[in-house]
Amino acid sequence: MKTVAFLTLGCKVNTYESEAMLKLLTQASYQEVDFKEKADVYVINTCTVTNTGDSKSRQMIRKAIRQNPQAIICVVGCYSQVASDEVRKIEGVSIVLGTQFRQQIVELIEEFQQTHQQIVKVADVMRLNHFEDLDIDSFTKNTRAFLKIQDGCNNFCTYCIIPYARGRVRSRDPQSVLKQAQSLVDHGFVEIVLTGIHTAGYGQDFDNYSFYDLLVDLTTKVKGLKRLRISSIEMSQVTHEIIDLIATSPIIVDHLHIPIQAGCDTTLKRMNRHYTTQEFADKLKELKEKLPTLSVTTDVLTGFPGETEEEFQQTYHWIKDMHFNQLHVFPYSKRKGTPAAKMDNQVDGIVKKERVKQLLDLSTKLQSEFASWQIGKTLEVLIEERQGNYMVGHASNYLKVHVDLPDSAVGKIYHVNIISQDGVDLIGCVDHEEN
Fold this sequence. Notes:
alpha/beta, 24% strand
């Protein structure tokens, strides 16, 4: 039996792409083993969003080579796209793919088995204009299914290498998305998470079909879909029609992840983010008025070049006033090849650490406050796993809920009465099962 082991670094898109490659290899009679075990083939799906992502990618490549020097080592993804020369020079690497050609992984492994010659296939992503379809009908490690609907990004924020690793926006054919969604539901998934590099940029490359049109089709044409979640959306893409659709659709969940990155206009300008804090705040107000149960989470990047103490305080207080329900906090990391890496006034590491801590403490307060508002309410919870005496899952608003249920509850949605909170998590008891 031929064996393959995967290691996936980075985002949900990488998770999706690893599952798709695993499916192709399984169909070719490979059996998956844990990455810590000896395998015939190792696939390292790399990340390059920070320098740490790069070094972690190199570390995992070397680990695979040590575990089985005779194995075929396939390095794919964003780091191998932007630094293919670095990757191919690592002794023991057999195949280097960027962010394309993953559909050919089985054929390339077979080619290497015959020739024992290193294979490097990396396209110029800036010239790509079609979406590489990678199909999945099951996930090995999740109760909710990710569905990749687009690739690439046109934003070119000054701190971000991703457009250079993924290219410009390319959207998946709508019929392909609907077919994949139906297949996932038919395989037992009740929740689908739409994902991409710039998810709601979907349709920017189409003439007459938008992200809103896709949401309408998914919620009306996919039979048996219970929950649809958008992994991330820019505030500029939250249109009035999308707000109305979320407000009226029983399928689209009451949670949006909308990155802000900074709550200070001068910082946002240096980042090349195309909005002001006032524009963001106005749209957020409309969202919360039309969707009173909505949970809004965000990304914050602190320690960006030139961020003074005054700018940081502006960000901190603005975020506090906006009442986000959770913050994903990142310290700015200098990324070679991006405009921000060359900017003056790089912020000291100790200062960055302190700012991250302050924002994480704020996030805990905001999460705890939002959790306390749920007590006495009934939430729909998708049960995911057992933790001690409780089964744990996420409510539609993305809060974590602990509830006393049997193991057979995994993958099902329950109506749960919320009776108390434990820090930022909730504890509830079951009213009745929905499906």
